[in-house]
Amino acid sequence: MELQRLRPPSFAGNVLSLMKHHVSKWENHNQFDLRPKLLGRRLFWKQPMLERRTFFRSNGGLIYCSYSSEKDQNLQLSDARVIYSVAPAMGHNKESHPESHLRVPAIVSALEKMELTSKFRGSEIIELQNFKPASVDDIASVHARAYVSGLEKAMDRASQQGIIFIEGSGPTYATATTFQESLFAAGAGIALIDSVVAASKIHPDPPMGFALIRPPGHHAIPKGPMGFCVFGNVAIAARYAQRVHGLKRVFIIDFDVHHGNGTNDAFYDDPDIFFLSTHQDGSYPGTGKFDEVGHGDGEGTTLNLPLPGGSGDITMRTVFDEVIVPCAQRFKPDIILVSAGYDAHVLDPLASLQFTTGTYYMLAANIKQLAEDLCGGRCVFFLEGGYNLNSLSYSVADSFRAFLGEPSKALEFDNPDILYEEPSAKVKQAIQRIKHIHSL
Predict the structure, then answer these.
(1) DSSP classification of residue 210
(2) Would you call the peptide bond into 349 cis, given omega within 30 degrees of 0 as the criterion?
(3) Is 219 a catalytic site residue?
(4) Which 3 state secondary structure label does DSSP give 81?
(5) How is residue 221 annotated by DSSP?
(6) Which of 22, 92, 101, 219 is an active site residue?
(7) Angstrom distance (rounded) from CA 111 to CA 124
(8) What pLDDT is recorded for position 376?
(9) Cα–Cα distance between 300 and 71 in angstroms, integer?
């Protein structure tokens, strides 16, 4: 078959019908009352089960592992190649908004269709279920308590009005369930940190983690929300990894098309967290310049590489080899976290880079190898942007294949005829500039 005749499979045309079954399954296994109960200093949701438990899917069934049954949980983790969590925030939605409640269910449907779930893979792929929401203390490790309490109080107004805007200068909205579902999204990432770290203690090749969550987080600044983002999920997970697991040095890679300004700001003066962002030059929110390198003790542990419009697969392969790898090798991280935005895809409507499904496969495979080489394989991805349901779903699925060490199926989706020549001269100039600034 000729490349130009390859087209994506037809699931995207009826994604709504395909996702209903999976959303129903998710709700059945993750039911929670959106009225929070304060127990001590931590929020929990009332659940239909009598005990708090972790649930692992295996061979189409459920394996019940209570939190106290660490041995059983570790046996499951030792077999896994990929472990993921799902927090779709179905109540956090605004009609016609690009960051919609369709995003995560579309990914879950694609994983099922492409046989990348435990139903088809047994214990090789585990979906972590019934994890706890993040606590207010977890959120406050990154965000101002005034913001957290203010957002919680705003839920009454959102209940009355249906939807409110919580960012004075931008499009970030909230519904009556936004606060609780944002805690749940952050908790999904924290649970993966726990699982990956636990697995790394019993196996030299722990599973890769992927938090399929929303609202996204990398624009949320310490003092408030921004750019569709409510809480900084990856930043919260980084602080949790340090505080709870003693993983002092955290390397964060952000390949979203937009600059992760919130993560950037949270760790700008921290020498133990290296934040590296590639993003389209001149895109929202206009931050992430070459000379933003950190401050004080953190000078040199922030790297921002704005890429010219039209940059694609060749660009990112070069950036990975010449910038990301030497930075990570020099930093010597204890864990790698990834703000995985899929909105740099050529089909995405919100920017003008031309990554392909194959680009994301390459990034996932190379980051996995980097984690194996430098930090015992400890690595967790966190979903950020990605607003074309087709390219988002297929790219995440191909990331899963990369984690599994299986061949990419990008050629079944990517159409090379729509690509144009990358701005190689500008890219070379940008890479040389950042290498000079950071002495790479």
Answers:
(1) E
(2) no
(3) yes
(4) coil
(5) B
(6) 219
(7) 14
(8) 97
(9) 41
